[in-house]
Specification:
4 copies of one chain form a homotetramer.
Chain A: E1 5-10, H1 15-24, E2 30-35, H2 45-48, E3 77-80, H3 84-96, E4 100-103, H4 113-120, H5 127-132, E5 134-135, H6 142-146, E6 150-152, H7 156-167, E7 178-184, H8 186-189, H9 200-203, E8 208-209, H10 217-229, E9 235-241, E10 248-254, H11 262-270, E11 278-280, H12 289-292, E12 298-305, E13 310-317, H13 321-336
Parallel strand pairs in A: 1-2, 1-3, 3-4, 4-6, 5-6, 7-9, 11-12
Antiparallel strand pairs in A: 7-10, 8-9, 10-13, 12-13
Helix pairs in contact in A: 1-13, 7-10
Amino acid sequence: MTNLIRVGILGAGGFTGQELLRLFARHRQVDVVYATSSEYAGKSIAEAFPSLLNEKYKRLSFSGHPKSISDTPQMDAVFLATPDDVSLKWAPEFLKAGVKVIDISGAFRLKDPSAFLEFYGLEHTEPRALENAVYGLTEAHREKIKSASLVANPGCYPTAATLPLWVYRDLIDFTKPIIIDAKSGTSGAGGRKEKDGLGYSTVYENFRSYKSAKHQHAPEIAQEVNTLTGQNAAVRFTPHLLPMYRGILSSTYVFPKAGINNADFVKAARSVAYEPFLRYRENVDAVELKHVQHTNYCDFAHYFDEKSGVVLIVSAIDNLMKGAAGQAVQNLNLMFGFPENMGVM
Amino acid sequence: MTNLIRVGILGAGGFTGQELLRLFARHRQVDVVYATSSEYAGKSIAEAFPSLLNEKYKRLSFSGHPKSISDTPQMDAVFLATPDDVSLKWAPEFLKAGVKVIDISGAFRLKDPSAFLEFYGLEHTEPRALENAVYGLTEAHREKIKSASLVANPGCYPTAATLPLWVYRDLIDFTKPIIIDAKSGTSGAGGRKEKDGLGYSTVYENFRSYKSAKHQHAPEIAQEVNTLTGQNAAVRFTPHLLPMYRGILSSTYVFPKAGINNADFVKAARSVAYEPFLRYRENVDAVELKHVQHTNYCDFAHYFDEKSGVVLIVSAIDNLMKGAAGQAVQNLNLMFGFPENMGVM
Amino acid sequence: MTNLIRVGILGAGGFTGQELLRLFARHRQVDVVYATSSEYAGKSIAEAFPSLLNEKYKRLSFSGHPKSISDTPQMDAVFLATPDDVSLKWAPEFLKAGVKVIDISGAFRLKDPSAFLEFYGLEHTEPRALENAVYGLTEAHREKIKSASLVANPGCYPTAATLPLWVYRDLIDFTKPIIIDAKSGTSGAGGRKEKDGLGYSTVYENFRSYKSAKHQHAPEIAQEVNTLTGQNAAVRFTPHLLPMYRGILSSTYVFPKAGINNADFVKAARSVAYEPFLRYRENVDAVELKHVQHTNYCDFAHYFDEKSGVVLIVSAIDNLMKGAAGQAVQNLNLMFGFPENMGVM
Amino acid sequence: MTNLIRVGILGAGGFTGQELLRLFARHRQVDVVYATSSEYAGKSIAEAFPSLLNEKYKRLSFSGHPKSISDTPQMDAVFLATPDDVSLKWAPEFLKAGVKVIDISGAFRLKDPSAFLEFYGLEHTEPRALENAVYGLTEAHREKIKSASLVANPGCYPTAATLPLWVYRDLIDFTKPIIIDAKSGTSGAGGRKEKDGLGYSTVYENFRSYKSAKHQHAPEIAQEVNTLTGQNAAVRFTPHLLPMYRGILSSTYVFPKAGINNADFVKAARSVAYEPFLRYRENVDAVELKHVQHTNYCDFAHYFDEKSGVVLIVSAIDNLMKGAAGQAVQNLNLMFGFPENMGVM
């Protein structure tokens, strides 16, 4: 097994980190050699997460967070499942050391440093890394990802909302507003820690919107629409919190270009049948979270509403898979020349 | 207690019927003298629903469905919590017998018989009753309801979506689409019976839209907007099923008239402060289902999104209360001259 | 309304405090004149809890916690929905001022100060108040409660488990172990604050026991069995956390005395038919949380298992009602000569 | 891939059938050549269950139920995830045709035909197959399973309750009652179909026992205790329905033999450390459903309660994995000489 690549995960104790560990337990080309967690430092994987006990991890324990790059073992790639400021600091360090980086935080997603400051409250101190970072929406940027050394893995909401916008991009009138009414389970709306607003008694048997006025995923979606179409779309993005655990469903309302009809939308949807992780479902009501949970699929469909002139696009993903760890592994596979679906199907 | 009014409930074993029984247990002017349920016929209220055991119901048992009007006791008012076809047949019978009717089915909501046929699959055989029926959106039609003998109690989705549209009606550009993205708990999406699609294993940890292409509440909303504004708005209505029990939250996207700004919306919202059951919440994210569950309130707020030119209106109700039984009792109170909030606050 | 009694609630912002406010909104003999909450001090009731908005509370706002008794208004009775140490300090202060006290904490439940130290980690500094405190299991101690000035309102688990033990007390062999396998929703297992272990992602789709080795309700149950029967029963008490919000169901396994049979158990169960809040259900499987939620009932039943010689007793309550606020109001009614079910039915 | 064994699944559309399909998608020695489902006959696996789409199943579609053995392809082994009467009829047919059978129904679990009649309501018409059937509690009967041609895969409750009884079997006084208080998610308490009692509105925010007087798993547990210890234990078995989907937790109360202490229980627990799917957890409160969901582990622990003389044993499994499909694959691996954990770890 000398030809396995050596992979590390910073922040491996969080939701996405656990999901990466779960995926790599079965990935035939990857050896996880390093996993950090301030909470679980010193514990074996199985002690911390009994459901992750696996042959591959019998000898792996969580390390504390590294103080400097010299604390880390030799690696081919590292996943940063860390807060934005930690990723901002460490991504360049690893790049300098020749380690490919897949960053799951928001540190390298927004190309405009002033937007980063506005939405993340941080000065962007790494303009060169930011410039070279490739946005990891796999289906839309496959070729660039293959040769990237730093991938900014997309946010969960942007993945769910933007994938079908990419599919239908030639049919939509982007001079009119794009209205994204999105709903997420709790694992997508916050981290593993119990924060204000994610206690059982406030989530259970309840439903509400949150961060409606200002969510950091709104500019990320707008930027990607601009990348894909060259247009500055006005995005209205309203995230809601579902009383459940896993999955994001986005109901997106768009206006079609003049002369475009339902057949055009169907044709566009069918044109991506080759994509391993996109599934066109014909009926919007058949796009359900249960069909994508624990998978890397993005299910999507549209309803061309003649009466109102609005097209409803519904898409669903598992926020921890296609919305985080699954897409990250997809990107790793591309970066190292493995089959794209290895370990995620 | 000779001056209590005598009230009956047809279909008292369903969700709304139970809620009516719960409310009337505390209503000081109402004596429930008749409650039908094919399932529970012959059983006492407490046998069928242990949580409804109450002094007032110690001697009340469920009757079977009546064969003719002569099977029913003398009553001042009757609630029809029955299927559409049953209401269609029985409302005129009771009216003829001088009993005021509050119909909770869809039988008398749509003024256009062809729409009724299209969305309910039934010929409308009672044009006269239909013509005289008053649409029971209490806040919008209070005066008419006071003198009505037949009230068509609104659907739960239309109540949630239309109340804030009524509040903001002068500010919205109804020549543009009204996009209603609504989410309901299971008690609003179906009856008490376990139907396909409402089993635990298909609802739990799941989320999806349903009837997106054609839901009978879409024309009801469009009709009411027309009644309120005189305009034929194009309504895009997408209902979704929440993995929870109680409540409807509607995220409605509208376009403001030219020159209208946020201050205008705030002013309109504040202008209804006198309403006992409307609560303006200033922040859309503060409109939560848990604040309205088991109450007759409609909480609402708006977000005037300058960037996209769209105004987001969020509203929430308890579908069994303001969306059904609570509003029905509010209407009864108006019809009989009782304080409007008696028994519902 | 000069003859209403004046009531205060310390700790009115917690789960039980809110439930008391909800109940008093409808209680015809009670005027809430004082409600403290460090979190909501200065806010009106309706601002803090929109679902509690009510005529009665239009002019009531939360006060901060009092520094001394002179900060508090004149009152006839006060509810202490406060932590154990706060109740320990304040109960004697109010008693001295002539205010009757219903304490919902554990401060005055255990008669043995050494047990209090062991299970609550506090020295009991108020032996006189402790001695005079009446244990508020209403059905078992009605007469004493009528003349009490300090009532120690029982814990939620002890209420659920002990009520049927009281009913069947003459039939059970208390020289053998009493095995109590209890299950609670999250509102019974912790306070309103999000503590470790009550976050959504650790409770949802999960089930486990907690505090199995040492829970402060175990000695409370043992003490009450001793009070009722004069015997020192060995109690095995295992609480579990249900992935839901409201209710406690206790499956209690006991050994019958020699010669006792099922008919004896049925007779005992029927002998309490006069009790307004005990409901014998004949079949253990018919004891469901949904039948008692939002009510003050304790539903119970037994199964006399001839094969194993064990009798299974199942009982269910709403932990915030019969297990806390409801029983507290029942006790207040007794202390002031109101009908026992006033405001709780 | 000519050396893969050919496997079929009858009743592959149900919960257990789907789980088998999920497991075999990754099993390196198994080719699924046949899968029946009356509901999905003619559909591809991915059409019926989008989350099961996988390379291995690209060409597999559901067949209807076979009329005779000649309708079935050549197979090495077949799983019967079918109703009891269907298994009863088909197991002997496949055995005759030389196909090894793993029956997941209850048809071959109870060795006493009169008990089968009493608890399953069916005459046992296949005494010879019944006699030869090996009870598939893997850890307890490994050697017999290796050479079996018919394995009766244990029920989910019996697996959860009996595995720790096997571990501690020499320490327990089986002349005294064994009290099993078990709790299951809905996927263990019923099939995929929505039956009375498993609708969302009756399960959600509710908890109750069911079949307390007579559940078919009680005699199965008693029989296995007898097999393991030679004693006729009196088993009190009370199943409850959890408002969640996946997992069974059993709180079992036993009396230790005279002279036995906690150290003996700890030693016994540690003595099975070699078992790949048993995990001793030291603290009963650390046995949680979330640690075993989607895995084949049985987590267990005990609490030796000196005061009451009772030992509490808590055990947890995923009912669809160790309680059904996972254990079935474990048994298949043994029968065909594959590593026992292949495809289930």
